[in-house]
Amino acid sequence: MEREARCLCGALGLRTRGEPKLVLACNCRNCQRRTGSVFGVGAYFDLADVIERTGKPRQFAITGDSGQKVVSHFCPDCGSTLFVETAMFKGMIGVPIGGFTEPDFPEPTMSVWNRSKYQWVQFPEHWHKIQAQTPDAS
């Protein structure tokens, strides 16, 4: 299966093959600010499964609360994040699932950084929940 993600204005895009290795909801403050929402939802693909990229994104790097570097690749025109790279998931990229616009996209299986989750947000019981995120994912 191939999927295509695009930024809001369509200047940037990427295509992936296969299913994501991981789909998660992130409640960290950086994802809240980056998305303008209460959490971000990303699908993580191995770099080898990203089969095409179009356009030239800008980058913004920040050190997260985990102490790990996070690099957002975003459209210089519309500002949409096309993908993120984190030291935590080396060799993978995280693509915001809204960029795919597929209602049947796989459901997240976990939520991370729950210690900074908005108190009224509830995730399904069957999701794995992590209070914080450290390099050893504990």
* Low-pLDDT residue spans: none
Radius of gyration: 14 Å
Q: What's the count of strands?
A: 11
On the 0 to 100 scale, the average pLDDT is 93
Helix content: under 10%
| Total domains | 1
Examine the coordinates and then state which fold CATH places here, giving the name of the CATH topology.
Metal Binding Protein, Guanine Nucleotide Exchange Factor, Chain A
Task: Write the CATH architecture name.
Answer: Beta Complex
- Structural class estimated from helices and strands: mainly beta
Helix-strand layout with pairing:
Blueprint: E1 2-6, E2 13-17, E3 22-26, H1 29-35, E4 40-46, E5 50-54, E6 58-63, E7 69-74, E8 81-86, E9 92-96, E10 110-112, E11 128-129
Parallel strand pairs: 3-10, 10-11
Antiparallel strand pairs: 1-2, 2-5, 3-4, 4-9, 6-7, 7-8
Keywords: Lyase, Metal-binding, Zinc
GO molecular function, one term: metal ion binding
Domain CENP-V/GFA: 3-119
Give an account of the 3D structure.
- There is one protein chain.
- The protein has about 140 residues and is mainly beta.
- It has a single domain, classed as Metal Binding Protein, Guanine Nucleotide Exchange Factor, Chain A (Beta Complex).
- Helix content is about 5%, strand content about 40%.
- The strands form 3 sheets. The protein has a 5-stranded mixed beta sheet. A 3-stranded antiparallel beta sheet has the order 1-2-5, with no helix packed on it. A 3-stranded antiparallel beta sheet has the order 6-7-8, with no helix packed on it.
- The longest helix has 7 residues, at about 30-35.
- The model has no long low-confidence stretch (mean pLDDT about 95).
